[in-house]
Amino acid sequence: MTWEISHRMKQSISKKSLMTIKIDVEQAFDKVRKEMQNCYELIQRLGRGVVYFGSSRLNDDHPHFLQAIEFARDVAKLLECTTWTGAGPGLMDAAIKGALEARMPVGGLKIAMEASEGISSNQHPYLPSEKYLTCRFISARKYGLANAVARNEPSDMTAVVAFPGGIGTLDEVFEILALIQLKRIGSELPVPFLLMNYDSFYSKLLQFMDECEKWGTVATGEVTSLLKVCNGNSEALEYLSDFYNLPQKLKEF
């Protein structure tokens, strides 16, 4: 009798646990869906444009920080579009500062905790609250940043720019490249992807990708078909100018 009661109690607890897990999962899906919708609405309001990825750890006196400011400023002027970042510190902040110098729109999809901060932070230090969202779910943030570069019309001028960065940057870089490869981004209207190889930062990564080609894990020419490696700002600006047929406008810089 004691065993039977114990067995029934375990079954009851197990069923309740499964119901709790199901409710938790459904609630999580609803929360992610809501965050994605909020990201979409912010992008619709501010406009699609150039999405920047980059290290959150580099200070404002680092040479790459200064290069990133100049580049984001010039791109904002050239394409006259919204600048999007993860609204974090480091090179993300440099891109924001550059766009603000150009007096062009800025939007951000911030994650509640940056790896470089190590603390939860829901607010941006100076952007108005209507210019950014703080996401709890990294999947919603990734969805939003991918959506921000999607071109719906030939007149839409967007791009993905990867400044030097670490694990988070590489995660975003390869996810976007995979989406481009699978035609989830740029299937009808291509989106340029610029890898900013400041001081040969990405050269060894590119060597690794060459090795992948030799091993047959990456198709020959696949990587170069997905992105443009730029060693400096002028090279990247010229590439964007050619991509969107803006040669006369480039002469202003």
What can you see in these coordinates?
It comes from Vanilla planifolia (Vanilla). By secondary structure, the chain is of the alpha/beta class. It has a single domain (47-250), classed as Rossmann fold (3-Layer(aba) Sandwich), CATH 3.40.50. It is 52% helix and 12% strand. The protein has a 7-stranded parallel beta sheet with strand order 4-3-2-1-5-6-7, with helices on both faces. β1, α2 (63-79) and β2 (82-85) form a beta-alpha-beta unit. α1 packs parallel to α4 (138-147) and α2 (63-79) packs parallel to α8. The model has no long low-confidence stretch (mean pLDDT 89).
Q: What is the fold's blueprint, element by element?
A:
Blueprint: H1 2-46, E1 49-53, H2 63-79, E2 82-85, H3 91-101, E3 106-111, E4 132-135, H4 138-147, E5 159-162, H5 167-181, E6 193-196, H6 203-215, H7 222-226, E7 228-230, H8 233-243, H9 247-250
Helical segment tally? 9
Separation of termini? 87 Å
Approximate strand percentage: 5-15%
- Mean pLDDT over all positions: 89
CATH topology: Rossmann fold
* Main beta sheet strand tally, sense and closure: 7 strands, parallel
Rg from Cα:
22 Å
Element-by-element helix/strand order: HEHEHEEHEHEHHEHH
Overall 3D shape:
globular
- The CATH first-level class comes to Alpha Beta
Strand order of the largest sheet: 4-3-2-1-5-6-7
Pfam family, one: Lysine_decarbox
InterPro entries: LOG_fam (IPR031100)
Protein name: Cytokinin riboside 5'-monophosphate phosphoribohydrolase
Organism: Vanilla planifolia (Vanilla)
